[in-house]
Amino acid sequence: MEAQITKIRPAARLISTIGEDLIGDVYAAIVELVKNSYDADSSKVDIVFRYTKVDNEDVLKIEIEDDGHGMSNEVVLNAWLVPATKDKVNRVSSPGGRLFQGKKGIGRYAAAVLGETLILSTVDLKGEKTEVLINWSHFESKEFLEDVEILVTKEEGTNNLSGTKLYITASGKKMAQWGRSELASLTNELRKLKSPLLVNQDEFQINLAFIDCPFEEYNNNIFEIEAFPIIELFDYKISGVITEEGIVNALYENNAEPNLPADVINIKIEVSRNEQYCGPIEFDIRVFDRDPEAISNLIDKGLIDPISNLAVGKRDARRMLDEVYGVNLYREGFRIRPYGNGGIDWLNLDKDRIQNFSLRVSNNQVVGFVNIKPERISHLEEKSARDGLKENAYYFGLVRLLKSVLKELEERRFSYRQKTGKGRQTKNVSQEIQNLFDYSTLTDEVSKKLSHLQIDESVVKEISKIIHKDAERKSKFLENIQNTIAIYQGQATLGKIVTVLLHEGRKPVHYFKQQSPNLSRWLIHYKAERKWDNDLYDDILSRLENFKQQSEILADLFRRLDPLAKQNRGEKKEFYIKGAITKALRIFEGKLNDGNILNQVECNDDIKLKGWEEDLLIALTNLIENSIYWLSQTNAGEKKIKIDVVDNEEIIIHYKDSGPGIEKFNIESGVIFEPGFSKKLDGTGLGLPIAGEAIERLNGTITAHHSDAGAYFTIELKK
């Protein structure tokens, strides 16, 4: 056997793999080179697209120049020309104190994506000038990386100012990468590159110029890259910070009409088991309504096209929104791609909106800016391929925090739009159906019309009688429809509390599963031995007794849930209010005990009401389910549900809990009873509307009241 020691020899095409395969696209390539200029403590970077000819061939020369500290010959040889160097990882920040944006040591190879050749010309602070000539095709023609020869020149003691210039030459396919739409996309990418959150960010200007460009709108134009002006014309905005513990300090602003008051928000957001807090977060999330009225309002606010400096029409306004929408993610002021690109809905806003169209906003309505801390603080790690963050527990925590913050905006926006009539108007289904079968207006209108025509009074009465009979006949259909709706609402409520079934039914089912094999084994043993065994007999008897007890637990659970699943409601009957309250609380017996939630009921035993007991059960079940959810979200004080019943001319049920309560603006606007409105992040928004309609079937009303002590509802029932 012969042993030998060898070394890994990187293939020459490794460079094209680093550049073309990892950088991704031409926009990312430009961004990587701009980040390098920022890391060099530059005050500005100039990007010039110069269209020219070389040997009668069309050529694009891309020049990227900064006024940073430049690089010495030693740094060029031992860092810049070394793939994946740890130089920036070890140093963390620049001499000027900027946190490095590029740390993987591959960003400079982005030039390979942009053109066939590269000339690097850099001058350090001592005046030492170094130039490097690279022909990227050599990395494809040579076998090993060490076989590629690169020309490097050095000139000491020059009078040149410090800085770095890159000269990239592109022809053929490399030049064809830059069409009209790609130049527009590049401009947009650069506008998004710097976060508008950091108003005190040290000066770093990006300039973009096009010389002899074949596209007229860009030809000989110099753009000083600034944020999109449209973002200042938002309809709604929530901005602020989230601490390491998930505490939100934010300001909500409504700009949909002038002089509306702002709202200060201070909340604590809890994360789930597979999520982690990801350090301090700064956020600025702006929402635009995109209906015709809102677009007109946007134009009236003074929207100007940044290129032509002219006022825009509705089509251009929508186009400008399409250019800018998305939730952009930044680390210390510089954008992390691809978050914020139009098609990247990384918070799943569109998916959430499908589930709740009235309340949620879609991705194309949102312009967001989120700033996170460095990896060592946030634990949010960028992928080497520059295509986003690694999806670890900290990433999922970030998503949870941002969606919870956006929900605060969505609630307030929904409340405002419903109150002002701008939102989609949702109505009480039962009441709308009742109106369909109401013939009183028709009877009055027909009588008036016939009277004006001087029709005989007896004829008028006869026609009214015919209408009345038809109304009586159809009232039976109305009753059937209302009963069917009530059944569906009961089953919908049952669906909302399926966790109760899973929670309390799991233990008996688990017991059956575990013990059934034991019983089978013992009986087989008994049959084989054919002799009496007192111990075996006692074991079998004991297990059968436990089977009976667990079956009773399961049967009792089904009995408690049965009223919500009834297929036939029958006739209205008198029922005891306290009995209905007790049944509703018993449904959640296990959940209440597990959550250490006390419940107190003050109600005389003899208070009765005629109607369907199931309707009161439906209403109370939805209230209790909400209370258990919100009480589980708080760690403060005693957790309690209290129900007091007063019997006077009407029966009034006072329902209170000690949870976080309901905001006053949501109560005043009435949105909490609108289908689709939910304060739960993944809620359906059906609970309170179903409760409201169930109480209406009992000839009553349910009202929410603002209270600093928790949620407070009153149910008023007419006798």
Shape: extended
Number of helices: 23
Q: How much is the average pLDDT? A: 81
CATH superfamily of the largest domain: Histidine kinase-like ATPase, C-terminal domain
Fraction of residues in helix: 40-55%
As for the CATH topology of the largest domain, it is: Heat Shock Protein 90
Instruction: Count the beta strands.
Output: 22
Cα-based radius of gyration, to the nearest Å: 36 Å
Q: How many domains would you count in the coordinates?
A: 4
The level 1 CATH classification of the largest domain is Alpha Beta
Please tell me the CATH architecture of the largest domain by its name.
Answer: 2-Layer Sandwich
Q: How widely separated are the two ends?
A: 101 Å
How large a portion of the residues is in β-strands, by DSSP E?
A: 15-25%
* Biggest pleated-sheet summary: 8 strands, mixed
* Class by alpha and beta content: alpha+beta
Unreliable spans: none
Give, in spatial order, the strands making up the sheet with the most strands.
5-4-3-6-2-1-7-8
Could you characterize the architecture of this molecule?
- This protein has 719 residues and is of the alpha+beta class.
- It folds into four domains: 14-224, Histidine kinase-like ATPase, C-terminal domain (Heat Shock Protein 90), CATH 3.30.565.10; 229-420, no CATH class; 429-493; 573-719, 2-Layer Sandwich (Heat Shock Protein 90), CATH 3.30.565.10.
- Helix content is 41%, strand content 20%.
- It is built from 23 helices and 22 strands.
- The strands form four sheets. An eight-stranded mixed sheet has the order 5-4-3-6-2-1-7-8.
- The radius of gyration is 36 Å and the shape is extended.
- The protein starts with 13 loop residues before the first helix and ends with a strand.
- The relative contact order is 0.07.
